[in-house]
Amino acid sequence: MLKKELFLLAMKAGEYRRKAFVISIFALINEAADDWKKKPYPYRVVQTPTGYFFIDPENNNELTLIEDGKAGEPLFTAKETVTINGKDGVNNYTSNAELETTYGRLLFNFTVLIYAFNNKLPYINVQANPRNIEEMIIVRFKDNPKEGEERKDEFIYVDEYIKFCDGMFYLAGFTQLCVPAATRKTITGAPGIAELRNSLLEENKDRLYDPAVIAKIDAELVAYDRAYLKGDLGEGFLINNKSVDIVRKRLYGMYGAETGLEDKIEVELIRNSLSEGWDINKFPAMNNSLRAGSFNRGASTALGGEAVKWLYRASSNINVVSDDCGSVLGIDVTVSDNNYKKLIGFSVVTKSGSILVENEENAKSYIGKKIMLRSPMFCKLDKTDFCKTCVGVNLANNPTGISVAVSDFGSAVLAIFMKMTHGKKLALAKMDYKKAIS
Fold first, then answer.
1. CA 186 → CA 32, 141, 235, 408, distances in Å?
2. Residue ranges per domain, the chain?
3. Is the pTM value of this prediction over 0.70?
C-alpha cells in the first residue's frame, strides 16, 4: 500500500485522535521489535530498520508493507505536498478538481474541522488562523437544538464549537513535530545585525530623539532578522509578529525606545540589545518602563473590569422580540477589503426594504460602495427591546447573549490597556487624511 492511501484510511478511521499514531507517522520513534503486538490498534505504524509496515485491519491485523516509506526517515513531514480530489473522501473537500495541499494541512482539517463540523466548513488550504475560522462560525452559531428538534446544516451548534476547541488544543501536542521552537537560528541573532544597527544610528545621530526615526531603524533591523530566519524550521514557531518585531529585535538588534511613566512624544533611545547586556546609564528609563507596566496592569484592569460589570447590569433586560421593526435608518459604511466580512449576518437598507448579507460572496459584492447598514442604534421597538433585523443574525439566534455583546465595549477598553503593560512595537503608519476628515 502507498503511504497516501494509508494516511487517508487512518484519518477516516479517526486515528488522528490517537496521539501515538500521529507521532509515529511524523517522527522516528524508538521501540522494541515486538512492541506493536502488545497494543495492535488499526493502522498502527511499525518502523523497522528495513522499512515501514502497518497493522492492516482488512487483513486480519497482519503487517502490510508501506511501499514508498523510506527507512531511517519520518514517513511524512508536515510540509510534504500531496494532491487530493473529491474521490479521496476528505469530507470537507468535495470538488473533483485536484488540489495540492500538504499532509500537515490534511491532519489539521481532519483533527479540527472534520472532527467538529464534518463537511459544514470548507477545506482550509492555507496556514490556519483560529480567528478567521471563528469568523466563519460566528455567523452560523446557534444554541444546541432542544430534544426532538432537527439539526440543520446551515447552523453550527455549541457542542460542535466545543469539539472545535478540543481539536485546536489537541494540536498543541504536536508542536515539536511541525514547528520546533529551538533551532540554531531561532536561538541566535542574525550575523551582522549589530553592525547594521550601528551604521543606522550613525546615519541618524542628530535625530535619535524622534520616534519616527527610531521606528524606521527598528523596521530595518526586523527586516534584516526576518531574512535571516526565512526558510528555517523554527520560522513556523515565530508566527506571532511580536516574537520578531519586539522580542528578537530587543534581544539581538536594539532595545529601542522607551517613554516611561510620562505620556509624551519624545522618546529615550536604548542602543544596546539585551544579548549585549544592560547599559547602566539607561537603567532609569528601563526601570520607568517596568513601573508603568506594573501600574497599568493593576489600575487599567480595574477600570476595564468595572466597565464590563456596569454594562452587564445596564443590558440585562434587553430582549429580541420581533423579526423586523421596519426601520429605514442605519449606519453609513464604506465597504472595503478590510471590513466587508463584518457585513455578514446584517441587513443593508434599500429603497424597498432591507436585504440580508447572507455570506462572504454577498458581502464582497458591496466592496467599494457606501451603504447603510441596519443597526440596533436605530431600532424602532419600544423600551429596551430590539428586532432581529437590527441586531443581526448572530444575536437573533442567541438572544440571551446580548448582554455579553454589549459588555464587549468594556472588554475592548481592558484589552487596550492590558496591551500597554507589555512590550510595544514602535512603527510608522500611513494616514489617509482624506478619509480621516471625511
1. 34, 39, 8, 37
2. 3-177, 193-277, 320-397
3. no
